[in-house]
């Protein structure tokens, strides 16, 4: 067969592999370099010293106290920010959809507003607010969660909003109400279980964002993972590169999980429709 | 064709425009699936053939091979006697209408219809005139300025038809063009597609999995199964004289009633002797158990106190109704009766089941 | 919050049926936490910036800060920021679009696509300090590639100065997060392109080139432009990478703002940072507004 179509498919495959190879090298090279950099021994040989230290928590704390503070702070911030974002956002968005539809545009506008305000600008305005936060709650790095919740608002909102758009919230709520459910029950037992994967995806995004945040922490003089890594870079470049790589891989695994979860949602949806 | 509006040409011009199409021995596999398994199909000039068959039997693949969107592993495609097997899609001159969403969303309805003419470098004024004629032909001249997302599903399919016809295609190909539409629009548009097809006289292949649709619009219906043609015949013949059990089973609702083979290509069912549609298919041995496929309209019910069948339920369909009964051995049978007789056929009524002496097919 | 109490009655669905005012107030209670929070941590900071930008050292109203945005070194910083953002946005958009197209020609549920999408998500959002260190490990003075090229190939990439820690270095590192961001924002548009359009164009007699010129490109132009704008805003707002990488001076606006924030308060300087911050908001808001417009159009076509 002459195979015009197969020739085109072959051309397409060739194009795909050329693009993927070239860009793949561009993107993988720094990662490989990081790995090489962190396993470079004294005499130019191989050494797993840095990585062994990284997984040995007590020793790491002893050697790099700032780093372990930063890591602990960042993980604490992840938990707090996920909780605060979900508690603040999810019930509000559901409530607005169900009972205050006229506020929907406003809520959407406010949630997406941080996209137009660079973090560096937000810091400028947050400085006086954090003077009060410090006054009331002290200077713990965990107070950064207030700023981070604002940062993740656009992403979390989009995810939850998409989840709600995929189901018929109004009908669900009306059905539950007609069966005698109160509003708290409707939100907690009926709507929430139906947007579980959207909420989960909002949570995953929050994790990735918080783990990578530097600007606000650094300029509000609080130590989180990235601030510690940056500081460490001046004295022990090897360790800071190793931590960076580990954080990057962690975030990658999280997002890969997210894509699998999102896929599960699509599959169940399709099943329901057909 | 001249520049005169196609719509103004008399019905019956079919033979002048239509070209014969022949698909010969087409094979196409996807991995281990044989989507086409030696398909032979001939379309007479100006004819509308509907391809009918269960999901996955290769209808779409057949149409796409004819269009040039898919390549066959083996076999030939001939249009007007010319072998076009190795010709790419864009030089086959076929008009295609897809199931849905095929209109270019950034162009208005009229610009969509003009698209093919634009590719051929026709001057703007001629293009516009032709597009207006086509939109007129499909009955939505008033909506030419609208974008696809401003049109209903039915209107979009009309535009898609106009777009396919605007290039004066040698063959018109429709792949389930109505299946995304509401039942009512579907019937309306289906009749209109037939009217337009007769008007322009283009040889047409119409793929559908809706048997009613196929029987209603086609000159001939081709029933496919497993990548081959099972039967190609007029709608009446397909329905009344199905060549195989598969066709009988697939086209129209059929009862499966046990019986025994009789002499000379007949069978005995429910105490009656009936001729077979395909006497060759009868088992060689007499008195062998067989299953007859009998259409509901060939079943009659006679209320009788000594009847051994019982009425189970009845569904009212307007002038006619469907009544289901059970035979003494538990076999369910559906009969079609005039609705005026429903009063005598309440559930529980004992009835005698009679079969009209029409030829029946055997289940395989 | 004034915003809440002045909203028209949200419960009046049917004309003439007004819910009891008390019930309306209860209903509004449900959104008080959200609006309170957003007020304190989003609205107040924004106001602080906006008001600070027009406040003098004496606390009175003044346009001096805004006027000082016209100073040559501030203008130069904005110029460099815009240049950096524009170049990396264009580069990222073109390469990201190519990568996106390569991905959609692969199987949609394949591992390749899933992995690349997840990796793009990480690299686009994570950025910052991590990237700076990644590139220091790669082409820093003792980086993997630097050493390889110097020792094995005999090329010293820093023969004419260590450019990694200056503007050219930022260009390279920014590309590293711009391309993945483009992949993420452009993929949905590419997915919106239906195979039927290509097939319809072909069956109507169009060549591949005609399909792209008359259908593919017009349809993808708005999302491509929109993606480019988003990349621009992204690079323009970015701070962490530059902060971790740039060792000397403050070539771009975010670093200038840091300078104004952290340095000893020079007389007349303290609100200049806020003026620059306001300038950034204006640029980013303008770009995002254009982005939203383009987005709306492509949602209609490719949604
Ligand atoms: N591109 C493809 N790749 C793999 N398998 C395919 C492809 N196209 C078709 N098939 C397979 O070939 C067989 C025939 O497909 P085809 O689409 O022609 O069926 P169809 O008769 O049109 O069915 P339907 O009524 O569901 O549209 C099916 O088993 C299908 O799964
Ligand atoms: Mg099909």
Automatic annotation (TrEMBL), chain A:
Source organism (scientific name): Plantactinospora endophytica
Membrane topology: Multi-pass membrane protein
The name this protein goes by in its record: ABC transporter permease
InterPro entries the UniProt entry points to: MetI-like, MetI-like_sf
Entry keyword set: Cell inner membrane, Cell membrane, Membrane, Transmembrane, Transmembrane helix, Transport
Lineage: Bacteria, Bacillati, Actinomycetota, Actinomycetes, Micromonosporales
Superkingdom of source: Bacteria
Chain segments annotated as transmembrane: 71-94, 106-127, 133-157, 198-220, 240-261
PROSITE patterns: ABC_TM1
UniProt subcellular location: Cell inner membrane; Cell membrane
Entry's family note: Belongs to the binding-protein-dependent transport system permease family.
Domain ABC transmembrane type-1: 71-258
SUPFAM superfamilies assigned to the protein according to its UniProt record, in alphabetical order: MetI-like
TrEMBL record, chain B:
Single GO MF annotation: ATP binding
Keyword ATP-binding: yes
Residue ranges of every copy of the ABC transporter domain listed in the record: 21-251
The entry's keywords: ATP-binding, Nucleotide-binding, Transport
Pfam family, one: ABC_tran
Record flagged with keyword Nucleotide-binding: yes
Gene3D superfamilies the UniProt entry points to: 2.40.50.100, P-loop containing nucleotide triphosphate hydrolases
Cited InterPro entries: AAA+_ATPase, ABC_SmlMolc_Importer, ABC_transporter-like_ATP-bd, ABC_transporter-like_CS, Mo/tungstate-bd_C_term_dom, P-loop_NTPase, Transp-assoc_OB_typ2
Highest taxon above the source species: Bacteria
Protein known as: ABC transporter ATP-binding protein
Organism: Plantactinospora endophytica
